[in-house]
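Re: [help] complex structure
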Amino acid sequence: MTLTQQRKLKTILVGIASWTIALLLFFPIFWMFITSFKTELQAISVPPQLFFEPTLENFTIVQERSDYLKHAWNSVVTSFGATILALIIAIPSAYAMAFFPGKRTKDILLWMLSTKMLPAVGVLVPIYILSRDYGLLDTQLGLVIIFTLMNLPIIVWMLFSYFKDLPKEILEAARMDGASPWGEMTKVVLPLSVGGIASTGLLSIVLCWNEAFWSLNLTASEAAPLTAMIASYSSPEGLFWAKLSAASTLACAPIVVFGWFCQKQLVQGLTFGAVK
Amino acid sequence: MKRSITRLLMAPSVILLLVWMVVPLSMTIYFSSINYNLLYPGRNNFVGWMNFEFFVTDPGFWIAISNTLTLLLSVLIITVVLGVALSALIDKPFAGRNVVRVLLISPFFIMPTVNALIWKNMMMNPVYGIFAWISNSLGLEPIDWLSNYPLVSVIIMVSWQWLPFAILVFVTALQSQDTEQKEAAQMDGATGWHIFRYLTIPHLARPIAVVVMIETIFLLAVFAEIYVSTGGGPGYDSTNLAYLIYNQALLQYDVGVASAGGLFAVLLANIVAFFLIRAVGKNLTV
Amino acid sequence: MNSLTKTAVACAVSLAAMNAFAETQITVATVNNGHMIEMQKLTPEFEKAYPDIKVKWVTLEEGVLRQNVTQDIANGSGLYDVMTIGMYEAPIWGERGWLEPIDTSGSYDVNDILPSIRGGLSYDGTMYASPFYGESSMVMYRKDLAKKAGVTISDRDSWEHIRDAAAAMNDPENGVYGICLRGKAGWGDNMAFLSAMANSFGARWFDMDWKPQLESDEWKNAVNFYVDMLSKYGPPGASGNSFNENLALFNEGKCGMWIDATIAASFVTDPKQSKVADQVGFAQSPYAVTEKGANWLWSWALGIPAATQKADAAQKFVRWATSKDYIKLVGAKNGWGAVPTGTRQSTYENPKFQKAAVFADAELKAIKSANPNDSTLKPSPYVGVQFAAIPEFQAIGTTTGQMVSGALAGSLTVDQALKSANRSADRQMRQAGYY
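Output below.
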């Protein structure tokens, strides 16, 4: 075998291996999607059915029982709202830490990350009581505040590592031109780091969308996002996998499709400063 | 002057996080020192260390700590090792690479509760699940995953969720790997393994540190997956610290003990973080 | 303030303003069980009858619901105007003054409600929650399989007889398991079943000094019997099965016998969901040394939190949803086999129901024979058949359930499981100051 042939064979083998693994890892999602078009009896039939007459009945039932659009809207508002708010707060500090590091910058960063380690179960009651006292229970604003604070440390940290790796020469040139730190940030740093900011935001949106502890405990009817909708289909009286799959598909589809579209962006931006 | 501007820029996030930490934390510390049960209003006397003692002497306490650490380490190892391997595998172009990448990262977008529901019901159920069907087709006895290997089941679910994240970060990092260096090494007759071992791995040191760091923060507090799938059992077999707090304290609305448990979890997190930062810190360039 | 917050605040204010002018809107929290989902579907009927009231629903799975409504009521948040609670919560919360007494005046006909159910939802003679449906437990079995195996199942068999019957019907080669029982950990899951079983072995949760009795011989006998029978003649993965899973197994024709909630009877006899609908027989729960407490008693009920601002509208809703007319409405719409049962004597006297529900007599007999105030052979200080109506029980029952499911899965011995459950219960009771 010649070297080129060998290379070709290798590429084909790599392709086959990659496809197999990818399909295996994707299978549970595929199966959930398929199951959502089955009847309940087909959903638990043994052996599992791959070919069947699809029905939209489950989706109709889910829509009848829960106001999908309202839940979805709550999810959109809270995850995008919290992400935008967190970015607005995080960008200046990440910038300051990256370009004007002090002796304690490292400590501050680590401390920020450590605030994420307080387990939600342990502080449920304090947060619940505070939310009640400030009228934030079952409001979108309440969830936005919680999600913002929850993700702020990671956002600051990601932006910090991204900013740190920007080429120093450009900044120095700007400083020579007498730009103020504010001007430097808005005119030089931000345009250069659109990719990093976008992927940080994407990550934060995904984390907010999938957050299930606070969104279940702090909402009732008005601000309940899609995670709360799932809780009305899990473990009911009877085995309803098809309806559960339909509800899950509806709850996950927006963020999965969103993730697919933004995947290029994510892949380019999640550098965590690894690019030198 | 610069200094004050820097401080001004940092102030919002520092102050917010300080409030976010200090207010619940001080309330938690206060609650942990009193008798506070939601179902017994008005019995809020000071009890000293009793809540802590109660939480630590729980028969499940040490099991929960060891499960928390087992879960953390297993998922870290699985996601980092498989993540590096898979991202190296799809680093070179082949037919449909983009689709493969999309498929590989998809599980990260699935809600943890849905993740656990899919695995528990449709994959691992010993009668109707896919795994049971595979076992039966091969003439084997189906494995009852959630009862016989509860912690392993949880590890599988959580790894499935976080492997895509590792792949994302590593794929990104590999894109920036110096191809000239690799080609030069190839010219010198280095094997694929050598290139992987001596060029790719060192290049990935920092992304690995990042993945370990971020995942640790989330893995120490895994709750939804356990709540939905095994409920911490059988026995204490899949109870981690977060679940123990829920089970021993919140189930009976004993806020005092829950607060004490919460403080223990913070302590554990900081111990882990301390070792972690020593281990991977030099790669973090903070 | 950034623009987002401004918008959010503006939205909140305008929403609040809108509500002030609109009709009364009540928020009802409920579990995602079949009968409640039916109630949600029938909301338009209620709104037709009371045009000035609008109903909003929050439907959640049992565990999440319980956590949400408990937070709400204990902190007086007032997010819900009507909440679905169980027989466990009603007396505890009623005692604390957290629930409005139910308005049972006039046409509501409170005396029609089955006495044991009414008693379980009352504290000090006042009913704090209206039963939406009620249930006990009984044996459901496959007549065809019993005949084939040459066994007969009748009311109040002994546990030994049930075990022998399970052995005779067990045929795993052909996908039939002798007996299906709850194994999934939880005070309302495996422990609901097992407490009733243990009662019939003469066991009790606490003695008169509130000391946990889980290490007593009675408990050991009961749990050993249960673990032994279920591991030998039960389906694989029994330690993960609760009501849902067993219902699916039974409907698929995989169980010879199933001892569970009477409410299951209407599902297993419904040909639309059960493959064995015409082959199901019913019998009263088995016993070992006593019939006392051998079958459990539970009710899902509607309560009104004291913190609500809309008590009048809430009362109207509760009265509507638990009335005779509501049952008739469901009967007319979905057939009498599908009405919520276990609440009113009049349901069982209705000839249409008797005709549609082959399980009617067995269910009524089971519910009537359960007495939450006297359910143990030796005296006990608590109310409740398969639970003790004290706040600590939820955690104690769940921990015990965890341990027993560990024993069932084989990771612990029964003695170890009960020992560690008892120790944990003892700690809990000590902590709560019972002794």
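Residues 67-239+253-269 of chain A form a domain with the MetI-like fold fold (CATH 1.10.3720.10).
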